[in-house]
Design a protein that fits this description.
Length: about 140
Amino acid sequence: MRLKGKAKEILGLMRAKIFGVTSGQNVYIGKHCSIKGKRLITLEDSVTVRPYTQIWSGGGEKKTVRIGKGSEIGERCRISITNSLNIGEKVLLSPNVYITDCDHEYRNVDVPVINQGIVQRNQKVSIGGLLHWNQCGDCR
């Protein structure tokens, strides 16, 4: 392994320990990331989290974020989960992607949205998976 690759691996391991997340081998976490949720967040082998990304997991034991092997989270992405998120293997999120499983209440137009609270419906979010293509290019 080249020196740069080894340095990124060591840096990723150190940042994973600092944030208290569960991580596999060859995980890289870029500079200026914010990861909150500690053991509720799992980064599998060869996951890359680019700089300035925010990953937040709140709630109890079953409210988890799992990012699958070989996946890459682009710069300045925000993942804010109150229930559950599963990102599959080799998923690529471009920069500036926002993923959440909750929303602000907004039914009362006479009250500012920020004062109406958060809506949660115990959703589980799943991103990624394999599509199989036949020879005609149709998805099956």
